[in-house]
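PROTEIN DESIGN WORKSHEET
SECTION A - STRUCTURE
LENGTH: 394
TOKENS:
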């Protein structure tokens, strides 16, 4: 279930006896590598305690809409932005009705209104309530609003009835959560991605580098895997684990990175690495001693990896990143043209390096799209969607 690795799941629990199964769902999500935050409605707290869900999720449970302390930390809008997926399990008949009418009088309905992510509901109720025409109409209209309805299942109910209305089992819901992150948009495509910084040796113990964490490149590689691509990640030295289901080549210098990129041709090339523009002309063979008061290191230009891959007749679809501190649009468009790219993702370097949140504007010849602040996983899925779209129309 590696698609859930590092995904941010907001688990909403409403008032239904099936709430006890949500404890298991939470545990399974955590085990699959997801980060889980739980929101309990007032009636959910009649069935399961915040303490149980806090212990299982490892995070403070959210219950109140207007809680001064919560708003000072992760308030309702921040929480809605945080989520890569909102799952309400169990979703009671009352919750379905309130959601449909856009009510925002408690934390969970408000989060659903403010969401940027997909929303899935796992209904749980008595079979007569499920088959009642009001519920049927509510479910029908929620589906038309692109809300996912997962279940309910058929079988014995807590009230003694038999029929449709049981919440799906935690294992089934876990599978559905994982499937949300599999798009198939790049099925059959090969993708090579560079990530992280490069290190340019001064001597055997010293180097020139930069603050790139590699998070964006790694998140993009995961998003490409989830979109069905065969991915090679060419990474400079970073301290994050290598995602599963891809081929990772570890390099240090820009020259090694270029060499590895040439050895891994692909349909799509995405340059996310913060490649050092210069390297010491000569790396000293031995550790340099501090004899002199001044020291000069002559630097020479490194190859531009992205621009070299984007040259030639059988060039891949090339995507660059422009991390800028000023004149974002002008600099990004300049790089798009001068590096002969198909697309460039521009963002504010000071807000991006090392951060977990990111926003960006994507430019291509004759168009652009602003991507709102999101988790890196959410943002990279949007970038992959745009790449798949542009590739289709190329
Ligand atoms: N890039 C590259 N090789 C380099 C420098 C940059 O492949 N030697 C790629 C980066 O991975 C990124 C894009 O080019 O996708 C833009 O990188 P950036 O550092 O923003 O631009 P530079 O070309 O280095 O220009 P400058 O530093 O002058 O802004």
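SECTION B - SEQUENCE
RESIDUE ASSIGNMENT:
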């Amino acid at each position: 279930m590696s698609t859930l690795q590092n995904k941010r799941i907001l688990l909403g629990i409403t008032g239904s006896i099936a709430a006890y199964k949500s404890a298991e769902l939470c545990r399974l999500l955590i085990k699959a590598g997801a980060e889980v935050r739980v929101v309990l409605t007032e009636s959910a707290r009649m069935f399961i305690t915040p303490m149980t869900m806090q212990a299982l999720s490892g995070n403070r449970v959210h219950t109140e809409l207007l809680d001064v302390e919560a708003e000072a930390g992760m308030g309702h809008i921040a929480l809605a932005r945080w989520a890569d997926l909102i799952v309400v399990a169990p979703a009671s008949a009352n919750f379905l009705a309130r959601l449909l009418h856009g009510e925002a009088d408690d934390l969970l309905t408000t989060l659903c209104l403010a969401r940027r992510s997909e929303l899935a509901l796992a209904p749980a109720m008595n079979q007569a309530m499920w088959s009642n025409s009001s519920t049927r109409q509510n479910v029908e209209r929620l589906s038309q609003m692109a809300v996912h309805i997962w279940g309910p299942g058929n079988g014995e109910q807590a009230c003694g009835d038999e029929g449709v209305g049981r919440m799906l089992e935690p294992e089934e819901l876990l599978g559905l959560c994982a499937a949300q992150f599999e798009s198939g948009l790049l099925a059959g495509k090969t993708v090579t991605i560079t990530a992280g910084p490069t290190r340019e040796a001064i001597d055997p113990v010293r180097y020139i580098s930069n603050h790139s964490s590699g998070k964006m490149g790694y998140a993009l590689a995961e998003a490409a895997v989830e979109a069905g691509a065969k991915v090679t990640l060419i990474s400079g030295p970073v301290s994050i684990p290598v995602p599963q289901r891809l081929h990772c080549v570890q390099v240090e210098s820009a020259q090694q990175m270029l060499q590895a990129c040439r050895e891994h041709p692909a349909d799509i090339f995405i340059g996310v690495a913060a490649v050092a523009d210069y390297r010491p002309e000569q790396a000293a063979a031995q550790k340099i001693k501090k004899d002199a008061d001044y020291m000069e290191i002559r630097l020479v230009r490194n190859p531009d990896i992205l621009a070299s891959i984007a040259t030639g007749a059988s060039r891949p679809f090339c995507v660059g990143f422009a991390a800028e501190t000023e004149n974002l649009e002008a600099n990004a468009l300049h790089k798009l043209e001068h590096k002969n790219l198909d697309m460039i993702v521009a963002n504010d370097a000071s807000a991006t390096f090392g951060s977990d949140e990111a926003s960006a504007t994507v430019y291509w010849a004759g168009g652009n799209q602003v991507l709102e602040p999101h988790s890196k996983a959410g943002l990279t899925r949007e970038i992959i969607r745009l790449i798949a779209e542009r590739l289709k129309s190329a």
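SECTION C - NOTES
The mean pLDDT is 93.
The pocket of cytidine-5'-triphosphate is lined by residues 194, 254, 271-273, 275, 277, 302, 304-306, 320-323, 335 (CB under 6 Å).
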